[in-house]
């Protein structure tokens, strides 16, 4: 059967009842702009006689064709639509085809722009940049890599043993907080005004509670007040989880840090503020915690934010559905503490430096200022019936590691800004 003849018959077969059927026409009867000429058919006002069954195309193979099409679409379409590569071993995690792998200190143009002197908020969410340890193929570098991985294995091996023996859920009165702060930073509360320490109240975290326990004065504001807030007197700002701030205030927060301000963010503020105002530093890895107490290991004991905190192993209270983070720029982000248990569940553990996984507290510089982020909350994470109950007291200091780190960050912010004001 000729193709034109079959097309004509198929068009007649599919015509709606009561409507005119398609009929081949001579092109010379219509102008070149007529749609009927373009397609070679026109609708006849007169109903065509019913075709004989012998002249219709066979339909006995239609069910087989439909089934074949559905099976083919099931197996073929994902390969065209998905951005992820499949591997022969399904348990091995593979990177997207368009992922950029950076090594060592090298950074992309986007990273340099976002971490440099520009005051422009980058639109959209930050693009994850996976990194591998900067180990070369030489024997010396291979030995260094082996030693590095052995160190990670040693840290992870002792995590469960420490967690089982750690003391948890201890009633900790405010006097313990103030005693530690006075020992580590004498007379800190008397050195600044409440206008210099601002707390942006959140739905889930409540930083005002530990600040009261430390005896520190502060100014609480609501997220909507950020629109007209004057950052002139503010030295350090704490944005509590969930950190849902107005979109137009992201530029103000970014410029505040760029000019020398210090910013503390907790939990969901990672996605709502840091990813949007400071892209290409850290990112939510789409994993959430279950609200348990996990292990914490200090990676940089010489860091000033670990002052007055002896030891390397601690506990860390996670809130329910806390956002786990991924380090996107290891050359610029410092990990203060990490969890071996969180690192083990990182979906990209196979393709990144394992020491970069499971971060609990991180800091990075931006312009003249700094940013500190906590996985979890700053408050005690206790119920309303026992507000002084502390789930994760640190050995030898009484308060939690996350609260001590934040207090040191506050002291550094006020001290560094005082020095800048004197200059």
Word description of this protein:
- The strands form 5 sheets. This protein has a 9-stranded mixed beta sheet with strand order 7-6-8-9-16-15-14-11-12, sandwiched between helices.
- The chain has 12 helices and 17 strands.
- The chain has 2 domains: 3-57, no CATH class; 131-422, 3-Layer(aba) Sandwich (Rossmann fold), CATH 3.40.50.
- The longest helix has 22 residues, at 401-422.
- The chain is globular, with a radius of gyration of 32 Å.
- The protein is an alpha/beta fold and 423 residues long.
- Helix content is 31%, strand content 18%.
- Strand 15 and strand 16 form a beta hairpin.
Alpha-carbon Rg, integer: 32 Å
Could you name the ranges where pLDDT drops below 50 across 5 or more consecutive residues? 6-31, 34-56, 78-132, 419-423
- CATH structural class of the largest domain: Alpha Beta
Amount of helix: 25-40%
Assign the CATH architecture of the largest domain.
3-Layer(aba) Sandwich
Task: Please identify the structural class as seen in this structure.
Answer: alpha/beta
The separation of the N and C termini measures: 93 Å
Biggest sheet: strands side by side, in what order? Answer: 7-6-8-9-16-15-14-11-12
- CATH level-3 fold name of the largest domain: Rossmann fold
What is the overall silhouette?
Answer: globular
User: What's the CATH H-level superfamily name of the largest domain?
Assistant: Class I glutamine amidotransferase (GATase) domain
Beta-strand share of residues: 15-25%
In short:
With 423 residues, the protein is of the alpha/beta class. The chain has helices spanning 3-13, 35-39, 62-81, 109-115, 139-157, 159-165, 174-184, 208-214, 250-258, 269-277, 340-344, 401-422, and strands at 22-24, 41-43, 102-103, 131-132, 170-171, 197-200, 219-221, 236-239, 262-266, 282-290, 293-298, 313-317, 320-327, 333-338, 359-366, 369-374, 389-390.
């Amino acid at each position: 059967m000729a193709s034109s003849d079959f097309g004509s018959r198929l068009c007649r077969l599919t015509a709606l009842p009561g409507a005119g059927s398609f009929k081949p026409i001579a092109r010379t009867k219509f102008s070149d702009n007529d749609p009927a000429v373009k397609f070679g058919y026109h609708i006849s006002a007169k109903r065509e006689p019913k075709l004989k069954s012998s002249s219709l195309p066979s339909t006995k193979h239609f069910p087989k064709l439909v089934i074949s099409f559905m099976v083919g679409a099931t197996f073929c379409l994902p390969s065209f639509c998905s951005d992820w590569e499949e591997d022969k071993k399904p348990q091995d995690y593979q990177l997207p085809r368009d992922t950029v792998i950076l090594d060592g200190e090298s950074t992309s143009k986007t990273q340099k722009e976002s971490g440099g002197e520009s005051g422009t908020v980058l639109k959209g969410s930050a693009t994850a940049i996976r990194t591998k340890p900067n180990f070369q193929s030489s024997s010396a570098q291979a030995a260094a890599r082996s030693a590095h991985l052995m160190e990670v294995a040693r840290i992870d091996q002792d995590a469960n043993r420490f967690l089982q023996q750690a003391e948890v859920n201890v009633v900790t009165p405010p006097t313990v907080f103030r005693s530690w702060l006075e020992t580590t930073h004498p007379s800190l509360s008397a050195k600044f005004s409440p206008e210099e320490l601002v707390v942006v109240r959140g739905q889930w975290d409540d930083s005002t509670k530990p600040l009261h326990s430390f005896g520190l004065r502060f100014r609480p504001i609501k997220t909507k007040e950020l629109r007209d807030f004057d950052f002139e007197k503010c030295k350090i700002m704490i944005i509590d989880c969930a950190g849902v701030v107005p979109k137009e205030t992201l530029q103000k927060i970014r410029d505040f840090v760029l000019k020398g301000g210090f910013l503390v963010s907790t939990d969901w503020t990672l996605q709502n503020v840091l990813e949007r105002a400071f892209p290409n530093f850290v990112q939510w890895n789409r994993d959430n915690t279950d609200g348990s107490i996990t292990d914490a290991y200090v990676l940089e004991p010489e860091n000033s934010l670990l002052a007055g905190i002896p030891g390397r192993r601690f506990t860390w209270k996670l809130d329910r559905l806390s956002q786990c983070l991924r380090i996107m720029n290891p050359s610029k982000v410092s990990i203060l503490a990490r969890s071996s248990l969180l690192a083990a569940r990182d979906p990209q553990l196979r393709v990144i430096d394992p020491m970069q996984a499971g971060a609990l507290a991180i800091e990075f510089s931006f312009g003249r200022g700094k940013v500190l982020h906590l996985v979890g909350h700053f408050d005690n994470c206790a119920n309303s019936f026992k507000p002084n109950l502390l789930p994760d007291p640190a050995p030898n200091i009484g308060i939690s590691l996350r609260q001590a780190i934040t207090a040191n960050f506050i002291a550094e912010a006020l001290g560094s800004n005082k020095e800048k004001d004197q200059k």
